[in-house]
Amino acid sequence: MKTKKLYLLALVFFSLIVQLVKAEVKLPAIVSSNMVLQRNSTVELWGWADANESFSIKTSWLTEAINIKANDSGNWSVQVKTTTSKVSQTIEIKTQTTTIILENILFGEVWLCSGQSNMFQPLKGYNGQPTFGGSEAIMLSENANLRLFTAHKKASESPLEDLKDFSGWTQASPETVSEFSAVAYFFGKQLQEILDVPVGLIHSSWGGSKIEAWISAEVLEELQEDGVPITPVSKNPQRSPTLLFNAMINPLIPYKIKGVLWYQGEANRQDPNSYKILFPRMVKDWRERWGGEEFPIYYAQIAPYIYSGDNEYKNKEDNTAYIREAQMECLDLIPNSGIAITLDIGEEKFIHPPKKKDVADRLLFNALNKTYGYKAIDYASPTYKSHIVRDGAIILEFNNINGGLYSKEGLSDFEIAGKDKVFYPAEAQIIEGNKVLVKSHEVVEPAAVRYGWKNWVRGTLFDTSLLPVSSFRTDKW
User: Fold this and answer.
1) Which of 16, 281, 291, 452 is the most buried if burial means most Cβ atoms within 10 Å?
2) What is 22-107's CATH topology?
3) How many CB atoms lie within 10 A of CB 248?
4) What's the CA gap between 210 and 198, in Å, rounded?
C-alpha cells in the first residue's frame, strides 16, 4: 500500500514537471540578452510554447505589455517597434509559471556577414597566415556598443528552426574578438565609431563553401528546372546544395538586419556563368524570406592568387579573371548592391590575403555612401567604359573617374591583341589624367585589350582615392 502511494505521488510530481516544461516559452538562439535590435524600425520577436499557450511580453521602451497566444503548433511571433535610444533595454516574457528576462539589449545597426574562408578568417589569423593589424585590433577591442554573434559550422538536410551550435551575443573584448571574422569586425568597429550608435554583427560562414550550399532547396529546384547546372551532393557538406542555408541561415530569419556583407566565390570559380545566375537569385530569395525588404548587400571580389592552373590561364576553367568579371556583372543584376575590388591586395601563394582591413574598409565605403548617406565618401572603383583605336594603339576610357586615374609605379599586366585573338604583353600609360593608352610593337592593328586577365596579378591602376580598377577585357572572345 505504501509503495502504491509513493508511486502515485511520483506520478503526480512528474505530471506537474511535464506541465511546467510544456508551458515554458522558448526563444531562438539569436534572441537573447546582449543582443542588438535594429534601431528605429519594426523588428520581429518569435519562438515556441505549448499549443495555444497565452503569455505576455513587457519591454522597457513600450508603455503597455503585449499579450501573445501561441498557435495550434506552439509557434508565436510578434512585431515590435524600436527607437533610436542608446540606453540599455530589457524584455520580460511572463507565463503563468515562468519568467524570462532578457537584459542589456541595445538598439543599433545589425549586419549579417557570410561567405567562405576569407569571411571566416579571424582576427588572430590562420595557421601560418596572419591578419595584418589583427593583434592591435584585439588589444583595442573593448567596446560595449559592439556586439558579436556567431553561427558555428553546421549542415542540415532540412531547414532548421533554430541554430544547433552557436556563440551567443557578447560584447566586443580581447577575449571575444580574436576568433571572430576579421572582415566583419573591422567593418563593424569603424561603423560603430562613425555613426556613434551600437552595432551588432552576425557571423555565419564556412570555408570552402559553394554558393549553392547557401541557397534554399526551393530556389535550387527552380533553377535546375530552368537548366542551370547545380553542384551535386558532396561528401563535404559546405559544397553540397542547400545544407548551409538550412542550418546556418534559415534559423536567423526573420531577425531584423540592416544589410549583408558577403565574401565568397573561390569555390565557384570554374563556372562563372552559373555564378551570375546563382548569386543574384540567392540574394533575391534571402530578401523575400526576410520580409521582402530590399536590404543592401555589399560583397568582396575574390583576390588574385596563383591557383594550380595559372600556367594555363588562357583556359577559361583555370582563370579566375572570369569569376572576377562575373562578380562585377552581378552589380547590375542585384539591386542595392556594391562591390569591394581587391585586385591589389592578393597574395601569390596564399588564398587568404592578410589585408582584411582593406577589404572591410572598401565594404564600409559602400555602406557609408549608399546606405548611410555619406555622399562625400568615394566607394566605386573606376570601370572600363569604352575604347578607340588610334595610330596602332588602343585608348581606354573609364566610368567612375573620381579625381582621375593613378598608378604608383607604372602600369603592368596589360595585354593587347589583333583580330587573330592572340594576346601579347603591352605597354600602358595614363594619358590626359583619365585615360589609358595601350600598345605593343607585336600588334600593328590592335582590336582588344585585357588587364589583369589571369589568376595572379598585382593591380596597378587606381583612382585618386586609391580604389583599384578590377581586371577587365574589351572583348567577349
Assistant:
1) 452
2) Immunoglobulin-like (2.60.40)
3) 28
4) 32
Q: Residue 329, CB half-sphere, CA atoms under 13 Å: how many?
A: 16
Q: How far is it, in rounded angstroms, from Cα 36 to Cα 211?
A: 28
Report yes or no: 282 and 217 within 8 Å, Cβ to Cβ: no
For residues 266 and 115, is the Cβ–Cβ distance under 8 A? no
The whole-angstrom separation of Cα 165 and Cα 326 is 34
pLDDT at 354 over 70: yes
The answer to whether 462 touches 469, Cβ cutoff 8 Å, is yes
Q: What is the pLDDT averaged over residues 35-55?
A: 97
What's the whole-model pTM score?
0.93
Q: 149 and 169 in contact (C-beta within 8 Å)? A: yes
What is the per-residue pLDDT for 10?
46
112 in Cβ contact with 247 (< 8 Å): no
Question: With contact defined as beta carbons under 8 Å apart, do 257 and 202 qualify?
Answer: yes
pLDDT for 307: 85
Residue 14, pLDDT > 50, answer: no
Half-sphere exposure (Cβ direction) of 51: Cα atoms closer than 13 Å: 2
Domain boundaries, given as residue ranges, for the chain: 22-107, 110-371, 383-473
Measured CA to CA, the distance from residue 397 to residue 417 in angstroms comes to 18
How do beta strands 99-115 and 199-205 pair?
parallel
Over residues 111-170, the pLDDT tens digits come to 999 999 999 999 999 999 999 999 999 999 999 999 999 999 999 999 999 999 999 999
Q: Which cell is 29 given?
A: 538562439
Q: Which CATH number is associated with domain 110-371?
A: 3.40.50.1110
